[in-house]
Design a protein that fits this description.
Helix content is 30%, strand content 25%. The protein is of the alpha/beta class. Strands 5-9-4-1-2-3-10 form a 7-stranded parallel beta sheet, sandwiched between helices. A 5-stranded parallel beta sheet has the order 12-11-13-14-15. The protein binds flavin-adenine dinucleotide. Flavin-adenine dinucleotide binds next to α7, α8, β14 and α9.
């Protein structure tokens, strides 16, 4: 089954940048277009400037539909969703791809409602089959794996997890000069717009580990004293912390901090494993991290073949030295 419409990927430009999520979406769009044998393009809010166009081009973006009038609606997904849906309809889009982040998950239902489209969240892969397009999703921090079939009778709106996007990120070998079209709504988009008075970023100390950007974890290689130093280090570095099962079993943390196959499956940008042997039950929960660094006393510890960088060292020496250095870098602040 081919699809008879265009694939549109929604890219906002936070801080005027085509960030990693945006680049991942472009890679994803190109890949999906290949799988579904369909044309694709980006829809952007706001309009990219000339310097940003090169970045879009380096991901092979053939067309950009810019919605410059909609920048003020970024904080009002119900209204931006209406605009996006109208633009998608005029572009004859059959698939709209959004990031599975705060903005994308708020926009997706609004766009789907306007387009009377099927909606799937946390989509990772799609493949053609006899009965339709098989869509695989990995939901709830990759804990749920599920496949659904989209028969193409209605448009499809899908969100894709940013963690997955960063894995497919791949500049195309054939760069393009995107054709840019500016879209303006023929009819006014009415409704009450939100006024944002402030934004609170997630606190790494309390954020769910499945959402954490940087995680330091300790295993049985620590004792009560080094565990306290480890927690202090995480606090000073403002990173999230996790533990292995034996440390959880000691009652030193809640279950939500246990990383591994029965604990949290994590996908951070950086995972630092301290005094962790690297059992399959633990490694199974961290293997999709972008970069893994390990410190272990035993040069033959099974963790080492699974890491990007490994250090044979004693936590009893490493942690106090790291703490001293971090405190010095912080200007001696407690
Ligand atoms: C069904 C099942 C499910 C499981 N699920 C999970 C799970 O979700 N998550 C999980 O973590 N485990 C899980 N486990 C347990 C798992 O099999 C391992 O036992 C566990 O991961 C080992 O934890 P560890 O690396 O902290 O301890 P150990 O295997 O005891 O390793 C400690 C490591 O610390 C190093 N070390 C010691 N002293 C120092 C020092 N001073 N400095 C530096 N390094 C030092 C040692 O060389 C060693 O490699 C599960 C087990 C089962 C049976």
């Amino acid at each position: 089954m081919g699809i008879n419409g265009k694939i549109l990927v929604f890219v906002d430009l936070p801080g005027g940048e085509l960030d990693e999520t945006g680049r991942g979406l472009l890679s994803y769009g190109a890949r999906l277009a290949g799988i579904l044998d369909a044309p694709w393009g980006a829809v952007t809010v706001p309009q990219p400037d000339s310097s940003q166009l090169d970045a879009f081009g380096s991901y092979g973006t053939p067309t950009i539909t810019a919605l410059p009038d909609c920048e003020a609606l970024l904080d009002t997904p119900a209204l931006l969703g209406k605009a996006l849906a109208r633009a998608a309809r005029e572009e004859l889009a059959q698939v709209v791809i959004l990031p599975h982040n705060d903005l994308g998950t708020s926009l997706a239902p609004a766009v789907a409602q306007e387009l009377d489209a099927a909606l799937i969240t946390e989509l990772v892969t799609a493949r053609q089959s006899e009965d339709g397009v098989r869509l695989s999703r990995r939901a709830l921090g990759l804990r749920i794996a599920e496949t659904r079939i989209w028969d193409g009778s209605r448009p499809l709106v899908a969100t894709v997890p940013p963690r997955f996007l960063s894995q497919v990120l791949m500049p195309t070998v054939r760069s393009t000069t995107p054709a840019v079209a500016v879209w303006r709504s023929a009819a006014p988009i009415t409704g009450a717009a939100a006024t944002v008075t402030g934004r609170i970023p997630p606190d790494p100390q309390t954020v769910d580990l499945t959402e954490a950007e940087v995680i330091f974890s300790v295993g049985k290689g620590c004792d009560p004293a080094t565990f306290e130093q480890f927690k202090e280090l995480c606090r000073l570095l403002n990173v999230s912390y996790g533990v292995t099962r034996p440390v959880y079993d000691l009652g030193w943390t809640g279950f939500e901090r246990m990383v591994g196959q029965t604990g949290r499956t994590v996908t951070p940008r950086l995972y630092v494993a301290l005094g962790i042997s690297g059992s399959m039950h633990h490694v199974g929960g961290i293997k999709d991290s972008r970069r893994i660094v390990a410190v272990n006393l035993d040069s033959k510890a099974p963790i080492f073949p699974n890491v990007d960088e490994g250090f044979v060292a004693d936590l009893k020496e490493v942690l106090p030295r790291l703490l001293t250095q971090v405190k010095a870098a912080n200007g001696g602040a407690p």
